[in-house]
Amino acid sequence: MTDRLAESFAQVDRDRKQLRTILSGMVEGVVALDNEMRVLFANERATQLLESAQDQIVGRKLWEVTRQRAVQQAAEKALAGAGPYREELDWTGAADKSMVVYASRLPGPNSPGAVMVLHDITEIRRLERLRQDFVANVSHELKTPLANIKSSVEVLLDGAAEDPVTRSMFLSEIDIQAERLNALVADLLSLARIESGTAILEFEAVAVEDAVHACLDRHRTRAEVKGLSLSGVALGGCPPTLAVWADEEALAQILDNLVDNAIKYTPRAGRVTVRWEATAEQVSVEVDDTGIGIPERDVPRVFERFYRVDKARSREMGGTGLGLAIVKHMAQTMNGSVRVAASEVNKGTTFRVCLPRAADGK
């Protein structure tokens, strides 16, 4: 009899430890309350969400633990036996967050209390806002060129097609807007492939000097039309054989986007310079211009999708608002980084891309 009793106690102790282990590993906070709303148990996650230490929670009334009225109401309604209760709230405290509170009375005619589950949905809400902003931005970016195409077609259908000069003007506008749509869709698909990890990159040693000069050659005609000086400079005695370990096409796209932006936002007779230098581990490539610059408040957001410092100017110049986002994700995919190294309004901007250096002989 004594042995069976001892085994029963041992089993109860093992079950209790197992339950505590499970509860301590949960991403949700779990709080057990008695009928007087005194905390009987709180797992580690609950103490984090309630912003209090465990020894300061257990044994205290719920209203002493948190001043969040919505949490207290959830417990009150659960204890009143109104059935499972769910409440979503914006938590204000040391760190603002979004939270869902689930509360339910323990079963039985003489219920000893209630159980509350706290679920932090801050990240979910942030992603929802990003999705909503993305849909709104894409809709707006598609709507503008489509509206221009539609209005041009309507004018042509109303009789303007009979006049060769007018017809040519409106057909040219349709072509420009169609190309804008094509560029937007291409950038969206490119960004989607990179973010989803389905972009196929072929890593190899890519000569930096060759990549830079090939990029400058692709943009030289546009630069000359604006009277811009376009040059590439190796710093610190970099050898012509200096190479990065990267995908050649991805590196070309990074350079193209940065140089294209520099040309767009640099006034006539300005300068765009691509510089590069290296350490034993990485290569830094800078695209420096004497353009309009970026206000300090906008610098942290320039790599966001569809973020534009000057929306009107950017759309006028045909930008999709995705170029820098693509640069950021491509650099990260190749184990590198990109940042605004320096910028001053009406003085110019310098973007710096850092990529792994290819080992000699690769």
Question: Can you put this structure into words, describing what you see?
Answer:
- The chain has 3 domains: 2-120, Beta-Lactamase (2-Layer Sandwich); 123-199, Helix Hairpins; 202-362, Histidine kinase-like ATPase, C-terminal domain (Heat Shock Protein 90).
- It is 46% helix and 23% strand.
- The protein has 10 helices and 12 strands.
- The strands form 3 sheets. Strands 2-1-5-4-3 form a 5-stranded antiparallel beta sheet, sandwiched between helices. A 5-stranded mixed beta sheet has the order 7-9-10-12-11, with helices on one face.
- Helix 5 runs antiparallel to helix 6 (164-196).
- The longest helix is centred in the middle third of the chain and has 36 residues, at 122-157.
- The protein is elongated, with a radius of gyration of 31 Å.
- The N and C termini lie far apart (76 Å).
Named at the architecture level, the CATH assignment of the largest domain is: 2-Layer Sandwich
Classify the beta-strand content into a percent band. 15-25%
Number of helices: 10
Q: So, the CATH homologous superfamily of the largest domain?
A: Histidine kinase-like ATPase, C-terminal domain
> Which spans of ≥5 residues are poorly predicted at pLDDT below 50?
none
The arrangement of helices and strands along the chain is HEEHHHEEEHHEHEEHEEHHEE
Shape: elongated
Percent helix range: 40-55%
The CATH topology of the largest domain is given as Heat Shock Protein 90
User: How much is the radius of gyration in Å?
Assistant: 31 Å
Give the end-to-end Cα distance, rounded to a whole number of Å.
76 Å
**Class based on secondary structure composition and strand pairing:** alpha+beta
Q: What can be said about the biggest beta sheet? A: 5 strands, antiparallel
Let me know the number of strands: 12
What is the level 1 CATH name of the largest domain? Alpha Beta
What number of structural domains do the residues give?
3
Q: How confident overall, as mean pLDDT?
A: 84
Order of strands in the sheet with most strands:
2-1-5-4-3
Domain Histidine kinase: 137-359
Protein name: histidine kinase
Enzyme class: transferase
EC number: 2.7.13.3
